[in-house]
Write a structure and sequence with these properties.
About 40% of the residues lie in helices and about 15% in strands. With about 750 residues, the protein is an alpha+beta fold. It has a five-stranded mixed sheet with strand order 2-1-5-13-14. A five-stranded antiparallel sheet has the order 7-6-18-17-16, with helices on both faces. The longest helix has about 35 residues. Bound molecules: zinc ion. Zinc ion binds next to loops.
Length: about 750
């Protein structure tokens, strides 16, 4: 063009005679240019249309913009839908044969009567539209509308319209009319956030599209041309007018009979915005659903290397089926306690709770008190680490002590500060200093004496203790150097803290024979084509402690509930183990415990740590009991698993902590068979030559000490079911000594 105009400028100075030639030249140039352009466009168009498939409907079907579902298994073991996931788009695919006989005809009749004759473009209408609107709008076939829905390009330009035509022609070369109709029915926008006829029928009629009659189908088709104007809820009269127009066209095109027409015209449609679908749009997902989504997102990123955005898009638009591991009964019981504030002290205090089955399955979770208002709100149970206080001791001190044979049930320790920190004796017990008397490990644990956990920790060693927390019990928020020291490990003053999820997961080992099973919120995830893309059957499961340790810890933690700080929180009708926790200045309250069915952890406190007041007992323990009583209401009595070997129960002298002999006041304890204490002779005259030493115990040796153990005397009548007799007496030096390993 530049050339042409410059020529003209040059030629302007010449005479009239040359003007004709110039004009001719210009016209010729223009004609050639136009021919070239037309030829180019034609060749481009031809090769585009006849070339490879440009828009793959199958790809779309399986990968894009489909609603994901979360299912939970009901008591019969059937998956039931608990949530639908989508951003603002509500799409659920339906195969054409699962629609109804009318809906496709409604669209053909109303939107594209030559659908079965054209090859993607209705030229008659297109030319008419070009004349009328300059080609930018109108005259679109269903195929063209489908292209627009798929490409989501709806700006009004000639170029877009042109590309749409090429794509429509291309698409029709590869797909049957029925495939195209099916894709169309699944992508058409029908107001109220509905894409596709399935979600629309659910939204407007509360039923499946397969159950919609002709009139209802026509009402849906009527929305299409101008969704807000013909929205049947917002503008029922406009919808009716357009719907009747649709039926008339269908009759004229012989798509329906006169009888069908009459019946549909006179049918009184009941529109009722389906509460479920509607509320799902603004649903505040439960804490459980939030946690499922988080875990699926993390697992997708880990397994497939997705970015957070991609993983999130997959979840929200990928048509995934997520099979949640929630136990609806347990979750419901938890909701009934946590959803209102009747069970807590005041208006701003918070709490969280996690309940696990012993294979790591998270059966219920609560991330806060009160009504949950939004999606992905702060879930304190998974996201808010807090100081665990004394609930750390069973996993940082006592479990490792039993597991490494650094100590045993009845080993005695002085109830007094063992260190000086900043010039002060450390640690103190809740409510004061210990008096320096010797108490057993069991008693110190049951009474939650910091003095005893600090001394047992010294037997265990800091490094060993820390590595149990990090490598065996998998605490996630440890601070490598800072937390590998006395105060964090012996009294729970960790740098960052723990969540109820972590604590329930750690304590499960004391109810399941010693295993740590990674907590899981879902069983598996399927993609839109039904392939399993994530499977929690392969979740991490490793030995946290020896089965013998687990059994002993279980019994130790039962004594917290029978004679220690946990007595108010026993679950009705079930054996219960547990541990209480309180942090400095009473800013956090904890309870972690379990029955043979479930293990749970509760935290109670303020989001901004502050002193807890106005409470009775341990409010975390109270919540534990409220919830667990409900959860276990219809569950029968059951026992904890016992270790196949390696555990010996025996009566020990409550004075010396050694195995009891005649005259000793005794109680029943549980011991590693390879770490039995020797016999006490402080309370009876030692008999000579009585030592046996056969059973497992490492230390045998000198002397004396008595015979026939037990002495069932005083104390333990009720509890004494068990067979202490099997322990052959051991001999030993008087002082209960240990080997402090690390
Ligand atoms: Zn004794």
């Amino acid at each position: 063009m530049a050339k042409v105009s410059s020529k003209r400028n040059k030629n302007q100075k010449k005479g009239l005679s040359t003007r004709k030639t110039v004009v001719l030249g210009v016209l010729l140039t223009m004609a050639i240019t136009i021919i070239a352009v037309v030829l180019y466009v034609f060749i481009y168009s031809f090769s585009y249309v006849h070339g490879d498939l440009k828009i793959d409907l199958k790809q779309y079907r399986y990968s894009q913009n489909q609603t994901s579902f979360i299912y939970a298994y009901n008591s019969k073991g059937d998956p039931v839908e608990v949530a639908r996931l989508y951003g603002t788009i509500n799409r659920v695919w339906v195969d054409k044969e699962d629609t109804n006989p009318y809906i496709a005809k409604c669209y053909v009749g109303l939107e594209d009567k030559r659908f079965y004759e054209h090859k993607g473009v209705d030229w008659t209408r297109t030319i008419a539209a070009v004349v009328k609107y300059g080609g930018s709008q109108g005259g679109s076939t269903l195929t063209q509308q489908l292209i627009k829905n798929l490409t989501e390009e709806d700006e009004v330009t000639f170029v877009r319209k042109y590309k749409e035509i090429l794509n429509a022609l291309n698409l029709e070369r590869y797909y049957s009319k029925e495939d195209i109709l099916e894709a169309y029915l699944n992508t058409v926008y029908l107001s109220h956030g509905c894409y596709g006829v399935k979600t629309a029928s659910e939204t407007y009629f509360g039923k499946e599209i397969s159950e919609c009659n002709l009139a209802e189908s026509a009402a849906l088709a009527a929305i299409t041309q101008f969704p807000s104007k013909y929205d049947p809820i917002l503008n029922p009269d406009s919808n009716k007018e357009r719907r009747n127009y649709c039926l008339k066209l269908m009759l004229d095109q012989d798509l329906i009979t006169k009888e069908e027409y009459e019946e549909a015209i006179n049918y009184d449609i009941k529109f009722q915005l389906n509460k479920k679908t509607e509320s799902v749009n603004n649903v505040a997902y439960s804490y459980y659903t939030d946690a499922v989504i988080n875990q699926v997102e993390n697992d997708l990123m880990a397994k497939y290397g997705y970015t957070a955005k991609t993983a999130s898009d997959k979840i929200n638009y990928g048509g995934l089926k997520i099979y949640s591991a929630v136990n609806p009964k347990v979750q419901k019981a938890m909701d009934s306690i946590f959803a209102n504030r009747d069970y807590v002290a005041d208006g701003t205090v918070q709490a969280s709770m996690t309940i696990l089955a012993y294979d790591g399955r998270v059966v219920g979770i609560e991330g806060g008190i009160g009504k949950k208002k939004g999606k992905r709100e702060l879930n304190r149970a998974t996201d808010s680490p807090r100081q665990p206080g004394s609930t750390i001791k069973p996993i940082s001190v006592y479990g490792p002590a039993i597991d490494t044979n650094a100590a045993y049930w009845s080993k005695t320790y002085a109830n007094s500060a063992s260190q000086t920190v900043n010039g002060e004796p450390w640690p103190k017990n809740q409510g004061g200093m210990g008096g320096g008397e010797m108490v057993t490990l069991q008693y110190g644990l049951a009474q939650s004496y910091n003095t005893i956990s600090a001394r047992v920790l010294a037997d265990v060693g800091l490094h060993t203790s820390y590595s149990y927390l990090s490598k065996r019990f998998m605490l996630k928020h440890l601070e490598p150097n800072a937390d590998e020291s006395y105060s964090p490990l012996a009294t729970g003053s960790l740098t960052h803290g723990v969540t109820t999820l972590e604590m329930a997961a750690a304590f499960q080992a004391y109810g399941n024979g010693g295993k740590y099973n990674e907590p899981y919120f879902y069983y598996k995830v399927e993609d839109a084509s039904g392939n399993v893309i994530l499977d929690k059957a392969d979740h991490d499961s490793h030995k946290a402690v020896e089965p013998a340790t687990a059994e002993i810890m279980n019994h130790l933690l039962q004594t917290v509930m029978t004679m220690g700080t946990g007595t108010p929180y026993n679950v009705d009708g079930q054996i219960t183990f547990g541990k209480t926790g309180t942090t400095d200045e009473d800013k956090d309250r904890w309870f972690v415990g379990g029955t043979p069915y479930y293990v749970g952890a509760v935290w109670y406190g303020y989001d901004i740590p502050a002193e807890i007041y106005n409470v009775w007992n341990n409010p975390a323990g109270n919540l534990f009991k409220y919830v667990m009583d409900k959860v276990h209401a219809n569950l029968g009595y059951k026992e904890f698993p016992t270790a196949p070997s390696g555990v010996t129960d025996a009566y020990y002298c409550t004075n010396s902590g050694l195995l009891g002999s005649n005259g000793c006041p005794t109680e029943l304890g549980w011991f590693r068979s390879d770490n039995m204490p020797s016999y006490c002779y402080g309370h009876a005259a030692p008999k000579s030559n009585d030592s046996g030493g056969s059973k497992g115990d490492k230390k045998s040796g000198d002397s004396d000490s008595s015979s026939s153990s037990d002495s069932t005397d005083s104390t333990q009548a009720s509890d004494s079911s068990s067979s202490d007799e099997n322990t052959t007496p051991e001999s030993e030096s008087p002082a209960p000594e240990s080997e402090g390993e690390e």
